[in-house]
Design brief:
- Helices cover about 60% and strands about 0% of the residues.
- Helix 1 crosses helix 4 and helix 4 crosses helix 5.
- The chain is globular.
- It has helices spanning about 5-15, 20-30, 40-50, 55-70, 70-85, 90-95, 105-120, 120-125.
Length: about 140
């Protein structure tokens, strides 16, 4: 596990040529709008959180900020803005995880749910609950 201040190691992890496109595909399949300002930071945060190297989600935002040249608060706010403006994100996430949310999740909770989707293999095979063999849309 890289040290929390090892920006080079985390930068390499966030720019992984195999994982990054899959996470981008997962997010766009969940109706997250890629042209929003926080989309790339969300991708970075999902990759870092899924690595399992962080006990505190705030540390994820801090590392993304340090690598990408922003402060933690800006990273979290940009990610929240992106998720808030992706109107179909919550229904898509509920469908893929098989859960029902009573309210919109916080940024931290949404990051946890997205990491759960990676752990369940949603990056590669869709949600698994659809009857069709095609990837969920």
């Amino acid at each position: 596990m890289p040290a929390k201040n090892d920006t080079a190691a985390y930068s390499a992890l966030m720019d992984d040529e195999r994982l990054r496109p899959e996470v981008i595909r997962m997010l766009t399949n969940c109706a997250v709008i890629p042209c929003m300002s926080g989309f790339e930071m969300l991708v970075d945060a999902v990759i870092l959180h899924a690595s399992g190297n962080f006990d505190n989600i705030g540390d994820v935002y801090a590392v993304v900020g340090r690598v990408r040249g922003h402060i933690e608060r800006i990273v979290k706010r940009a990610i929240q803005y992106t998720l808030d403006n992706s109107k179909s994100f919550i229904p898509q996430m509920e469908h893929r995880l098989g859960i029902r949310l009573t309210e919109a999740p916080s940024t931290d909770r949404a990051l946890i749910y997205l990491t759960m989707m990676i752990a369940r293999g949603a990056v590669r095979r869709g949600c698994g609950s659809c009857r069709s063999r095609e990837r969920c849309r």
